[in-house]
Structures are given as structure tokens and as C-alpha cells.
Amino acid sequence: MTTQTLTQLEQHELFLRRHIGPDAAEQQAMLNEIGAESLDDLTQQTVPEAIRLQRELSIGDSHSESEGLAYIRDIAAKNQVFKSYIGTGYYGTEVPNVILRNVLENPGWYTAYTPYQPEIAQGRLEAILNFQQVSMDLTGLDLASASLLDEATAAAEAMALAKRVSKAKKANIFFVADDVFPQTLDVVKTRAECFGFEVVVGPANEAVNYELFGALFQYTNRQGQVTDFTELFAALKDKKAVVAVAADIMSLVMLKSPGSMGADVVFGSAQRFGVPMGYGGPHAAFFVARDAHKRSMPGRLIGVSKDTRGNQALRMAMQTREQHIRREKANSNICTAQVLLANMASFYAVFHGPQGLKLIAERIHRFADLFAAGLQAKGIELVNDTWFDTVSFKGVDVAAIQARALAAQINLRYDDDGVVGVSFDETTTREDLTALFDAVLGCDHGQEVAALDAQVVAASRQSIPAELVRKDAILTHPTFNRYQSETEMMRYIKRLENKDLALNHSMISLGSCTMKLNAAVEMIPVSWPQFANMHPFCPLEQAAGYTQLIEELSTDLVDITGYDAVCIQPNSGAQGEYAGLLAIKKYHESRGEAHRNICLIPQSAHGTNPASAQLAGMKVVVTACDKEGNVDLDDLKAKAAEVADQLSCIMITYPSTHGVYEETVSEICDIVHQHGGQVYLDGANMNAQVGLTSPGFIGADVSHLNLHKTFAIPHGGGGPGMGPIGVKSHLAPFVAGHTLVKPGRESDNNGAVSAAPYGSASILPITWMYIKLLGTKGVTQATQVALLNANYIMKKLSNHYPVLYTGRNDRVAHECIIDLRPIKESSGVTEMDIAKRLNDYGFHAPTMSFPVAGTLMIEPTESESKVELDRFIEAMIAIRGEITQVEAGDWPSDNNPLHNAPHTMADIMDPAFEERPYSRETAVFPTTAVKENKFWPTVNRIDDVFGDRNLMCSCVPISDYE
Ligand SMILES: *Cc1c(COP(=O)(O)O)cnc(C)c1O
Fold first, then answer.
1. Could you identify the atom of ligand 1 that is nearest to the CA of residue 721?
2. At which residues is N6-(pyridoxal phosphate)lysine found (predicted)?
3. Alpha-carbon torsion (585, 591, 596, 602), positive or negative
4. Cβ(257) to ligand 1 under 6 A?
């Protein structure tokens, strides 16, 4: 019998004990190692006194997992899931259960990072390559990106691409057809304003009347009409305009491709390929262009290259980290994209195959035909005379229809002009159609599905004009034709998963990326229908659960950031930067200071900072860093004074990208404020702040939060993410709004930055769970243990590798940078060799060469236990030993385990291995820990240069594998 009280026994159940890796004894051992008495003592030593919060957060108590689930189940129950025919870019879909369970709910897929280390990411690279192939086949164009954030931002990217590549250099007009989705127009307008483009909106065929650099059309339009654009596009191309088309992915299965009509860019949402509506996201957008535009593509491309054995190997092509290299000249600021969702959509195509997709599309289309026939039999006037899935009609008693529909839990699209629209989807059944007739026609309508079907088949009605019916084959690649049974599909997914290193294998200490635990309990609500199956434009009353969740989350984020308000719209960190800079811009404009357009950015900033500043129409002025890695105050003062009345803002990161708490941060804020500028604080490093300090307290005006870093949303192999922004009250009136959903807080004239009002709403429950379960105590302790883990690694490695920067008392913040340049100098071993050698030891490399070339930035996070940290440390020390052998000349500099890393099974099976100066065991089983849990890279080191010179971004012919 224990003598512990009930309260003490209950403590044992708290989630924080599971989230935080090291237990109390391990924490104490590590504290001893680094010379601190307690977590609080370490905090005192590390975080500058002036910025240390003197209060506790008000999140509340810590909770157990079952308490958390019970509470969020109550919230979920407040969402009413109606049958949605709203369409407008979001459609019901059946997520194949084999994909739901083996991809969306599988940490092997959702906890991986962006494939910066392609040798241990060939699985998801193949899945994304499949996504690119699907995109190309369906659009009829030849170069696809690996996913954009949503359809509306893809439209804005298409506009920016048009400007870059159009030969109509003097033109400043971007034409948008007046029948595109309203949210698409909204996002395009916001972006165009920053670039200084003129957006002209009008009937599609009037585009030719303007001097324009590009034009945007929607196929099929928002009311459902299917139009042949061939002649219009030819006329526009004569004018050197770039033609962009927003298209519906499911319709493209049946319709002639926009590429074959002459479009230059085709994009759209891949949501209805098996990704739930999720109240707006996350979903992947596809984006496909002509090969000629490859250097101008936004976002990432996956390309085929070869490894050192000459085998096919996949990797991110060209634009890998393009913002880091091209900064404000980058094509876009897209960093985190929508990889997990792109993979789900590509698996959906793989699972159904071309035949299956065709049957799905034809069934959807048939329901539209039947519905139209039923309405026409009753003399109702249709707005469109061609359609794929959407039928719009008018001249009806809208109020009566709406009342009957709501009573039957049905949502339709109601336009301002008395037009009602119905979009069918994969989930529609015969019973649904009957219920729809009841709602639209009232009872006693006498429309019978079977009879209508016989009629429609007999009449062979051409609701898709004959010339617009697709005639070419799609998805002929073997990958889309061999996994139609569930067993085959399950094994294909598993085969790819096995090639990838994710958090379910070992720690991923990517500095700045914060790869912490994505707990199962946080993920569970995401799949619930009350969160998954809500349409983002449904009446607000139906979304009471989401409203409550978003309000509670906002309250906690306000508390955590020290700001006055948050805006939950941006769907990535970089989008948050853009949204925050827009708020600053509008604020200056509101004060008659529209001329303030210079953004100061320290040299060490993340590449998305300058890329976002450029998107927001600002001019970037770079400020220096001193040799300790801190912002050089003298240079900052000089530059701020120099540009003074033009100064819009500064973008800083805190703790700095160098992983230390700069003592001067408040002074930096003061200097910028004195010159009338605003302070944008990049919140990517919030994992070193939560509960200890905050951007608002430090003195900044606006920040984004990467909910997919600090707040436990998984990285998904390169997305999704969420980048809400926190703002001080004076900026609150200037955050993003939305044309269709107005909860009443935002000012009416603020444009949108994302397609959906709350971005990727369906992953917000993850962050809500993270914060609520940990509570005030847990989130604060998480930060403290993140500091402890980083300082422990720093201490243990510092005898073997030089640590580049430290702050007060020789402490680092939540990450530490080790300098490999001296090693390269003395041994020829590069940071790349060390990164790849870590793969042989079963680890993902830390962040390489950011923010300083030739370094590794290690961020262990609070979730890693001491055992795992020690394994990593052991690997790093063993690697240092290997480097010493190279330095000593024991091994030739071009033939050693580092230079040849990573090692594959093919290597050790190769008889020629005998000629190497090291053993097979050294190659693949360098430590006992590795023997017990071996991860096998599936390809050898990949040749980047070859891949870029011979750019190929489509599926590899199967013959090439043989
Ligand atoms: C990750 C990161 C970003 C960009 O966030 P995304 O969500 O990838 O767009 C910006 N700044 C810093 C310092 C980061 O680490």
C-alpha cells in the first residue's frame, strides 16, 4: 500500500509526464551534468532577466488524456454536420480507409519532415512524385509542383508567375474572369495590391480588350458552366498574356484538359481526392505549368536523379530551400506546403486507378444530370446549360427552399442574386438526391431517381459538350494500375513508409524546425466527422464547436504571446509573415504614411523573411550581425536612421536564429519604434519562449506562430502547418478578413490571405489539445526542458566539436550550432559527409548550413528522453572518432565511411566492398544501438547537379527500375 495521496496518484496520469521526454531523475542527472541546480536555476542562467515574464500564464491546470478527449468531444458535438452541396472549392469525399489508417493516422507518414535528406525519404518522395504525375496527366501540362497551400493562394502564385514570364513587359493588368470562386478573387486582389498590379474583373471573353500580362479563368466556373476556352486562349496568347486556369481535379477526369486548350498554368485544390473538407483545410493545391517556366515555379518540385551507384533516386529539385539562396528574389515564400495531403490525394489516385476515378466522376456527373432533369421537369430555370457536378438555378422561392433544406440538414449554395447552386460529390447517394428534391421542390414532386435515370440515359444528354469530353488516356503509368486491392495498397503504402525515417524511428533534431512529439491523443479528434466533414462556408450557427475551439485557442495564444489579438487564417509560417507584414503596411497607410515601405532584416534571418517582405511589396535592407551572431546594434542604428521616414518595420527572430537569447532585443525594438517602424518577431522559435517570456512582453508588435513547430501539429513530411499571427491592439484592425465568412471581428475591407477563413482549421484541435492538456505548468516546463536538452547536448558535444554561439553564462537557448568548418579544413570531411553518416547511425541530420554555412544546428526539443539524447551524442562522438582517422591518414579522404555515407544493403552485398579500407560492420552497424534498431537508407548519396541538369519531374518509367 502506497502512502501517496489521491492527488499525488492522479498526477501520474497527467499528459505532461508523457509529452516531456526525460523524467524527474533524468532531468536531475542532466542538470548536474551542465551545472544547474534546477530547471528554474537554468532558466535564470539562460534567459535575460529583463525579458523574463514575472507572471504565470493563465491556461489553467494540466490534464490527463482522457479528460482532454472528453472535453474536446463536447466541443466537437457542437458542430452540426449537414449534408453539403455548397461546392465552391470544397466537396464531400470518401477517404479510403486504407489511406486513413495507414497514412493520415500513421506517424510513419505524418511525423516526417520535408525531405531535405532524400536518401532517407525516398518513400514520400515517390508519393509526391505520383502527385506531380496525377497533376500533369489531368491538366495536360508538363511540369507540376509538389503542392501549394490552397487553391486561392495558388491563383496568386499563378499571377506572380505570369508577371515573371510574360513577354508583355509593359502591361500591368491581371484580368480575372468574374465567375471564379469569390475567395480566389479575394486572395488574388490582396496579393495584386502589394505588387502594384491592376486587377480587372469582367466577363471572360472581355479579357482580350485589355493590355494585360496575364489572365485567370475558372473551368468549370463557380455556377458550374463548362466552357471551351480554346479560341479565347489563342487570342490572349497573341497578346503575350499568360493564361492561368483554376480547375476542379475531379472534373478533369472527364473533361478535356485546360493544357490542351492552350493554358500556360493550371491549378486547383486536390481536396476531393480523398482529403476531408475539414472546415477549410488542410488540403494540397496542385500547380502545373509549361516546362519552359520551370525556373519560375513557386514552391518545391520533386525530381528524379541518380545516386553514386547510378541508381534512380528522387530528391527536391532546383528550388530546394530557394528562399535561403535567393532571399527576396525567390519565386515565392512557400516553405511548409501540404505534403501529407498531397500524398493522400496521390494515394487516392493510385488506389482507384484511372478506371475507378472515371466511375466516381461519372457517378457524380450523373447525379448532376438527374437533378437538372428533375428541376427542368418542374419548369425551373437553370442558370448553366453545361456542367460537370454543379447545377445552378433561379426564379425560385429561395427562402422556402432554404427553410426546407435546413430542416433536412442540407446546405446549398445561395448566391446574392437569388441563384441557388447544388454541387454533387462522391458521397452523394440516391436517397440524398430524393431528399434534395424534397428540399428544392417541396414534397409531392414526383421525381423518381430510377425513372429519371432511364430518361437521362435514353436522351444521352450532352451536359458536357462533345468537344469538351476528355479523349486522351490518363494515369497510364503502372503505379496507377496495380494497387486496386486493399492488400496491394496497404503493402505499397508500407513499402514506401519503410524507406523513410520519421519520428517513430529516432529523434529528428532539426534546428528551427522543432520536431517534437505529435501525441496520438492530439491527433485523434482530427479524424472525427464533426471536425473533418464541415464545409468552411456553412452557416456559422452550424460551426459552434469550431467557433468555441478557435476562441479558446485564441485566448490561450494571446496569453502565450503577450499580444492583444490573434488571426487564425494563415496556413503556414511564411503565410503568417506575409499576413503580419500586410497588417503593418495597412497600419502605416491608415496613418497617412503609406510611403513607409522599407523592411530591415538581419543577415541571419530565415529565407522566408525577405521573400515575404518582397511579397508584401516592401524593400528589403539587410543589417549586419556581429561575430557573436547577434544583431549588430551600431549597424542597425545607422540603417534605421538612414531610412528613417521610409522605415516600415524590422523582422527579427527570437531567440535569434543562432540559438541564443540576445540581451539587446528590447533595445532593438526601441530603436525601430523611435524611427516610426514596427517590429515583426518571427515566432518560429517560440519553443524557447512559452511561459518564460513572450514577443509582446519583449516589445514586438506582431509575430506568426508555427503551430506545426512549437504547438505539436506534425510536419507531415513537408506540411501541413498553420501560421496564425498575434498582434498588438493597434494592428488588430488590419489583419486578414474573408469575403464569405464574417464572424464580425475583422474589418470589412481587409482582403484574405488564404482560401478559408480559418486556414487549415481541422488541425487546430491538435494545438488546442497540446495547450489544454499540458496546462500552464506543462507548457512552461516543456520550454524549460527544451532548454535543458539543448544545453545537455551542447555540453556533451563541446569537447568534440566547437559550439559556434553561446549567450549569457555560456548557455544556449533551445538549439545549438556546432561549427564543422575547422574540421573540413583539417580533414576534408564536409558537413554533408557528417549529415549522411548520421543516417548510417539511424539519425536524421540536424539542420545543415542554416543559419551559417558549414554548421549543424541541433534542436532536440523537450520530448526526447535522456536515453535518446545519449544515443545521438554517442553517434556524434563516434563520428568525430572517424573524422580523426581521416585526419590521421588511416583512411583516404575519398574512401572512408564518411565520404561513402550513407551505406545501403547494396553496398555491403557488393563483392567490391572488400576493397574498402573499412569493414562492413563499421559501415552499417557502427554501434550496438544501431544493431538493435537499424534503419536502412535505400539509396546512396544522390547527385544533385545531375538532377538539376537533367530535370525530370514525372514518374520514372517502370522499365528504368528493372
Ligand atoms: C520554419 C520557419 C519559418 C517558415 O515557416 P513555414 O511554416 O515553413 O512557412 C520562418 N522562420 C523561421 C525562423 C523558421 O524556422
1. 7
2. 709
3. negative
4. no
Q: Ligand 1: does its nearest atom lie under 6 Å from the Cβ of 336? A: yes
704 lines ligand 1 (CB under 6 A): no
Q: Please compute the mean of the pLDDT values over residues 328-337 and round it to a whole number.
A: 90
Sheet containing strand 619-623, strands side by side? 565-567, 725-727, 702-704, 678-682, 647-653, 598-602, 619-623
Q: State the distance from the centre of ligand 1 to the C-alpha of 657, rounded, in angstroms.
A: 11
Residue keyed to cell 503493402:
491
Residue 329 confidence class, pLDDT cut points 50, 70, 90: confident
The response to whether residue 703 sits with its C-beta less than 6 Å from ligand 1 reads no
Sign of CA dihedral 850, 856, 857, 861: positive
Residue 298 and residue 300: Cα distance in Å, rounded? 7
> Are 951 and 303 within 8 A, CB to CB?
yes
Query: CA gyration radius for the chain?
Result: 28
Please report the pLDDT score of residue 319 as a whole number: 60
Q: Whose CA is nearest to atom 15 of ligand 1?
A: 512
Distance CA 286, CA 154 (A): 8
**What would the mean pLDDT of 270-297 be, rounded to a whole number?**
96
Pick the atom of ligand 1 nearest to 708's CA.
7
Evaluate the CA torsion angle 690, 691, 693, 696 in order and state its sign. positive
Highest mean pLDDT: which range of 318-327, 738-747, 886-895: 886-895
Number of residues written out for the chain: 962
CATH number of the domain located at residue range(s) 561-772 in this protein: 3.40.640.10
| CB of residue 573 inside a 6 A radius of ligand 1 | yes
**Centroid of ligand 1 to alpha carbon of 704 (angstroms):** 9
Q: What is the pLDDT of residue 959?
A: 67
CATH match for 354-468 among 1.10.10.10, 3.90.1150.10, 3.40.920.10, 3.40.1620.10: 3.90.1150.10
Q: 783 C-alpha to center of ligand 1: Å?
A: 19
- Please check the confidence at residue 42 and state whether its pLDDT lies above 80: yes
Please, are residues 834 and 877 in contact by the beta-carbon 8 Å criterion? no
CB 387 within 8 A of CB 358: no
CB 606 less than 6 A from any atom of ligand 1:
yes
Instruction: Give the pLDDT confidence of 392-401 residue by residue, as tens digits.
Output: 999 999 999 9
For atom 3 of ligand 1, the residue with the nearest CA is 573
Listed in order, strand segments (DSSP E) in 581-717 are: 598-602, 619-623, 647-653, 678-682, 702-704
Question: Residue 390: CB within 6 Å of ligand 1?
Answer: no
**Alpha-carbon torsion 759, 761, 763, 767, what sign?**
positive
Contact 296, 332 (CB under 8 A): no
pLDDT in tens, 803-827: 999 999 999 999 999 999 999 999 9
The closest alpha carbon to 281, from 556, 101, 89, belongs to 89
For residue 381, the cross-strand partners are: 394
**Topology classification of domain 787-948:** Aspartate Aminotransferase, domain 1 (3.90.1150)
> Is 787-948 the same fold as 354-468?
yes
90 CA to middle of ligand 1, Å? 27
The answer to whether the peptide bond before residue 957 is cis (omega within 30 degrees of 0) is no
Residue 834's pLDDT band (boundaries 50, 70, 90)?
very high
- Chain mean pLDDT for the chain: 96
Distance between CA 104 and CA 275 in Å, rounded?
9
Peptide bond into 478 cis (omega under 30): no
Q: What residues does each domain of the chain span? A: 104-349, 354-468, 561-772, 787-948
Instruction: Return the CATH architecture of domain 104-349.
Output: 3-Layer(aba) Sandwich (3.40)
How high is the pLDDT of residue 746? 54
What does each C-alpha distance from 190 to 194, 298, 451, 728, 752 come to in angstroms? 7, 18, 49, 22, 7
* Average pLDDT of the residues in 926-930: 95
Give this prediction's pTM. 0.98
